[in-house]
Target: Inositol 2-dehydrogenase/D-chiro-inositol 3-dehydrogenase
Amino acid sequence: MVILVIGAGSIGRRHADNLKALGEVAELIPWRSYDRAALEKRNDVKGVVIATATQVRLELVTLCAAKGWPFYVEKPLHWTAEGVAEIYDAAGGLAKRSMLGFMARYHPVVKALAADDLTDVYGFSFEIGHDVRQWRQNWSFPDSYAAKPEGGGVLLDLCHELDLAKALFPDLAIQSVASVGHADFGGVDFASRIALTDSAGRAGTVAMDYLSPVSLRRSEMSGTRGLRKLDMLAAEITRDDGNGPKVESFEFDRNDMFRAITRDWLALIENENAVLTPLAPRLSDMRASSDLIADAWGKRVFSGSAEMTF
Model:
């Protein structure tokens, strides 16, 4: 039996390589070669990875639902609440055996933090940034999915941190979103800062940008029992309860997150009741996060223009 990987960009190729490393047979299909009629005739498929552009989701989910193929769909699911609802309606019960690609939930820093008692936290900030021109070899932002006004922009592209905030504090809601655009890419945010609150009195921000010349991925959480500082790139948590900082470091390889989430998905393919990692983004559990991301995208208020040339 084979797992289809639809979308042959860098993410699709990574998925195919990881599946093969985990002992699976993977077949990479570029989106331009997609032929629904041909795929509908196949009976040798046990799962599908949807690694296409954000704008291409519903068609593939409907195919998977019709064939009963569990799927792994890259994040974000959609940029509007209506689009999210359509995908969930199409997936139906198959969502219990499918996965949404928020692999940052498998970062060792995140797993350690999730095991903490966070009830004392009253304030938080998450930040991720990187110069979009330096992202990948042989990749052009202006020619990519990310440059499109519908489904593009940094809020969607780097939405992992927004999902992490929702995973740790499930009651969060969007208050406002301040975004910076670009003169050459109308409706595309190059930096966004999201303000959130919850009913427990927590208030915080999630910020993402395409602009930082230095790659960064960090967060802070202020609590009555102490301060927590997270560095996702260095794989460190610094905790300070007023008696001096204590640093906890973790071994970390970025690809380990991809393999860990893939293992959980492979387990779901075999058994929807499989025991998964505590924060595993099973699609059936990810509606609130997907709706939050869509809500944030819809609430963007643009001011100013980024100075970046391509």
Summary: The first strand starts at residue 2 and ends at 6.
